[in-house]
Design goal:
This protein is an alpha+beta fold. Helices cover about 30% and strands about 15% of the residues.
Amino acid sequence: MHLDPNTNLFAGSPLNRLSWLRPSHLFLNAAIASPTARWLIFNAGQPLTVARSDNVTKQSVAYLTTNDVKPFLGSEPYFGQGKDEGQLIMESSEVPHSSTEAARHRHSPVVFLGIHEPQSKFSAFPSSDFANPHAAMANLKGTPYFTMDVADLELPSNKLNDILGSVSQAQSGILSWSEPRVVMSSLDSFSGGVFAEARSLADWNRRNKVRLSS
């Protein structure tokens, strides 16, 4: 998806929200497990940023992998959680189910922001190739984006620092929490659109305490 050049930096999203697949926990669990999946993390509304050690004043949004954020996610399955810990609700294309079955009933709220499609004429839409969640991930090409706010976890500061310390080594940069207005000044159109969507939805979930995939 492409932003119109006349679109306000923070008013449009470059992601395909895939609204027709969002009720499927099979799709969401496949997207979250994708090695290309990227995460924007907040702490009480403050975004996680990364800076090079030789220029710590120049911050950019930190895009983490699912493996990076696993300590924040709790046990699998991440979506479609059954009554018991570790139980996955059964899903069938022949048997309709409630969209709330894709929810996270335990652990922190997670928001699926959408997928960033490659720069081509390809675009996922609700056709026979993408309507079935079992086959959708095989047909999709792009980068899934997720977000969450770790403030709800109420982790001790030393535990949070330990997690981010290990991630920082993999990022080859210095991670820190930043004021939104500071990082917003350096965003390009893509990052600006994703950042605005992520912060607004993470903030809404945090204030309303809804554990859905939004």
